Amino acid sequence: MDLSYLITPFLAWLVAGCAKFAINTIRAKRLAFDLIGYGGMPSNHSSIVSSAAAIIAFNEGLQEPALVVALALAFIVILDASSLRQQVSKHAKAINVLNKDKVEKPLRERMGHTRLEVLAGIVTGIASAWFVHYLFTFCLM
């Protein structure tokens, strides 16, 4: 089995996660461990699924049937990250306002991604896939 298919999504997750932590740390002007999670720049979910589709395209070509499955999965995940979870975020904000005096721990409000965060995740995923493809094709042969 070609390990590039296993390494690529993990690398994309790692790169996006480290970038998100660095961006959050710079914005908050402190180590932002509490800001790790859903939402933020870049989108980890978009990075992972786009890296999977990209490594299939790079390794097998655009005619590979598995690419269609990977693109469909990516489309669903990206739509979820950019629309459904943003609605969940809006609901959490409203619920927190209503329950501000009734609960100790409010609901997490930062859930979805903006289009820019999703785009940054897609770029991160494709770049990670290209790097792994290049590494396996030209350096490890």
Automatic annotation (TrEMBL):
Keyword entries, A-Z: Membrane, Transmembrane, Transmembrane helix
InterPro entries according to UniProt = DUF212
The domain of life is Bacteria
Q: Which residues cross the membrane?
A: 6-23, 35-59, 65-84, 118-136
| The keyword DNA repair is annotated on this UniProt entry | no
Q: Name one Pfam family in it.
A: DUF212
Coiled-coil ranges per UniProt:
none
Q: Please state what the protein is called.
A: Acid phosphatase
What is the organism of origin for this protein?
Answer: Vibrio inusitatus NBRC 102082
